[in-house]
Design a protein that fits this description.
- By secondary structure, the protein is an alpha+beta fold.
- It is 51% helix and 14% strand.
- The chain has 9 helices and 5 strands; from the N terminus they run ααααααβαβββααβ.
C-alpha cells in the first residue's frame, strides 16, 4: 500500500498544472479568482488521490481475509495450471476473472482520477497501471501460499490493456462492454449459511462473463427498439468451484443481452429530477461492468465436460 499511495501522490504532483504568466498589471479580482480556481483544482486532485487510496485499502483488506488469513507460508512456487484445460481447478474461469477484475478496477480508478481533474490519457495510464500493479502483487503473494500462475498474470495484463483501450478510445467504449454477471450459486449460499467464507471471487459457478456489442452503436439502429439489445460472446463454467459434486463443464456461447444502460437512459436520463439523473449515472456505472442477473441469454452454445474431478490447485 505504501508503493501505491506514494505512486499516486507523486503522479498527482507531477501532473499538477499552473499558470506561469506573470500576474503584474492584471486586476486584483481576476488574479484572486484564478488563484481560487487553481486551489479548487488542486484540492480536487488530492480528493481523487484519497479516494483511490481508500479503494485499494478496502480491496487489500478484503483480499487478506478472503485469501490469505491463516494460510501457511511456503517456498515460492511457479507453474502452469492448465489455462483453460477442462481438468483445471476452475476450467479457465479464474483466467477470465483476473482479466475482468483488473479491467474493472483499472477503469474505476481512472474514472476517479478523471473526476479529480486529470486528463483522460494520463488518468487511464495511471489507473490501469495501478490495477495491474495491484493484481501482479497478488499473484506474487500467491506464489508463497499457492502458486504463481502465468495464466492469471496474462489475464491481468490483458485486462489492464483492454481498460486502457476503452478509456483512451471512447468510440470503442460506446461499442463494447466486458461484463461479469454474478448470482451466488446454491452451494455458495449453503457454504455461507454453514459459516463458510464470503469469497465470491471463487464462486465460479455463479459467474458468467460476456463481451457485449451494443446494437445502439449502429447509427441505423440507435433510434429503434434494438438499441436495448446487445449481442456477444459469453463464457462460464459450472460445478468446478464451489460445487464439485457434479460433472464439471465449460460453456462458450453466442448470446443476446439487455442493454441496461440504454434502458436506464430511456427511463431516467431526461427526467427533471436531479435524483433521477444521478440514479441513472450510478446504474450505468454499475451495469457497464456487472449486469442485472438473468439479462443474458445464450443462443448458440458450445459445451464440454469431464468425468474427472478438477484439480484443487489454486
Amino acid at each position: 500500500m505504501k508503493t501505491l499511495a506514494t505512486t499516486a501522490i507523486f503522479l498527482i504532483a507531477s501532473t499538477a498544472t499552473g499558470d506561469d504568466v506573470a500576474a503584474e498589471g492584471r486586476p486584483h479580482a481576476e488574479v484572486e479568482e484564478q488563484t481560487q480556481t487553481e486551489d479548487a483544482a488542486t484540492s480536487k486532485r488530492w480528493i481523487s488521490a484519497a479516494i483511490t487510496a481508500g479503494v485499494y485499502t478496502g480491496v487489500a483488506t478484503w483480499s487478506y481475509f478472503a485469501w490469505y488469513k491463516g494460510q501457511p507460508d511456503l517456498p515460492f512456487k511457479f507453474g502452469g495450471d492448465g489455462y483453460f484445460g477442462r481438468n483445471t481447478y476452475a476450467g479457465g474461469a479464474d483466467k477470465v476473472g483476473h482479466a475482468w477484475s483488473t479491467y474493472t478496477l483499472g477503469r474505476a480508478t481512472s474514472g476517479i482520477l478523471r473526476y479529480g481533474g486529470w486528463n483522460r490519457n494520463g488518468a487511464s495510464v495511471v489507473g490501469n497501471s495501478l490495477a495491474l500493479l495491484w493484481f501482479t502483487s497478488v499473484e506474487l503473494k500467491d506464489g508463497f501460499h499457492f502458486t504463481f500462475s502465468p495464466g492469471d498474470q496474462i489475464g491481468n495484463v490483458l485486462g489492464a490493456g483492454l481498460g486502457m483501450v476503452m478509456d483512451v478510445f471512447p468510440v470503442v467504449d460506446e461499442m463494447f462492454d466486458f461484463r461479469m454477471q454474478y448470482l451466488p450459486s446454491r452451494q455458495f449460499r449453503k457454504n455461507v449459511a454453514g459459516g463458510g467464507g464470503l469469497d465470491v471471487a471463487n464462486d465460479y459457478t455463479g459467474q458468467q462473463a460476456f463481451v457485449a456489442f451494443h446494437l445502439s452503436s449502429v447509427p441505423q439502429l440507435k433510434d429503434t427498439w434494438l438499441r436495448f439489445v446487445d449481442v456477444g460472446v459469453g463464457f462460464r463454467t459450472r460445478n468446478y468451484k464451489p460445487d464439485v459434486t457434479q460433472r464439471p463443464r465449460q460453456e462458450l456461447y453466442l448470446g443476446i443481452a439487455l442493454n441496461s444502460e440504454q434502458l436506464s437512459d430511456a427511463l431516467l436520463a431526461h427526467r427533471k429530477s436531479k435524483l433521477a439523473r444521478k440514479t441513472n449515472r450510478v446504474l450505468n456505472s454499475i451495469t457497464e461492468f456487472m449486469p442485472i442477473p438473468y439479462t443474458t441469454l445464450p443462443v448458440v452454445k458450445f459445451e464440454r465436460s469431464t468425468a474427472d474431478a478438477p484439480s484443487e490447485d489454486r
